[in-house]
Write a structure and sequence with these properties.
186 residues; mainly alpha; Chorismate Mutase Domain, subunit A; 7 helices; globular
Length: 186
């Protein structure tokens, strides 16, 4: 009977290791969807820049940023999420969006005309829609944050969410996801 228990434990451990190995190799659809949403949010930053530049509105808006972060804290509480974790992640999203806007402003200063952009309120509504999807999916990607292979899984998802050859979008997406992984081995 003792040998049978050991065999069951060994079998269970083997199954666990195989499952963990499969997780490390298999792309997680929820993570990929989540990262694609972050990329979509980043892409909206170009419309923000195109809206701000012609009217000489500054990229930095600390008051608005704090309003956004407080709103995300409130939404997090309502969804049973950690408000500080959500606000921390959104701080990264905001910084990534500002990076994209700075790059666009640089191009505009060098002569590339900004494309037509809808009013800033319309753009913010688009951001809010993406944000709602991110918050609704938050729990689905929570396990990835502490997974020992989080860095690799996240890098794969970032690669798949980025158009080949678009290094700028890739860097902005990396910037948005700084701090996503909480595992000790990144």
């Amino acid at each position: 009977m003792h040998a049978a228990r050991i065999q069951v434990l060994v079998g269970t451990a083997s199954l666990f290791l195989l499952s963990a190995s499969a997780i490390a190799r298999t792309p997680d659809p929820s993570l990929h969807t989540w990262v694609a949403r972050v990329a979509e949010r980043n892409d909206i930053a170009h419309a923000v820049a195109a809206s701000k530049f012609p009217v000489q509105r500054p990229i930095e808006d600390p008051v608005r940023e704090e309003q956004v972060l407080e709103d995300k804290r409130l939404q997090a509480r309502a969804l049973g999420l950690d408000p500080d974790e959500v606000a921390g992640e959104y701080r990264q999203f905001i910084e990534a969006n500002k990076l994209a806007q700075h790059a666009d402003f640089q191009r505009y200063h060098l002569g590339t005309p900004p494309p037509p952009a809808p009013p800033l309120d319309e753009i913010r509504q688009r951001i809010d829609t993406v944000d709602q999807g991110l918050l609704e999916q938050w729990q689905q990607v929570a396990w990835v944050r502490t997974h020992p292979q989080c860095g690799r899984l996240l890098a794969t998802a970032i690669r798949e969410a980025t158009t080949p050859g678009d290094a700028e979008a890739g860097m902005v997406l990396v910037r948005a996801l700084v701090g996503f992984c909480r595992a000790s081995s990144r």
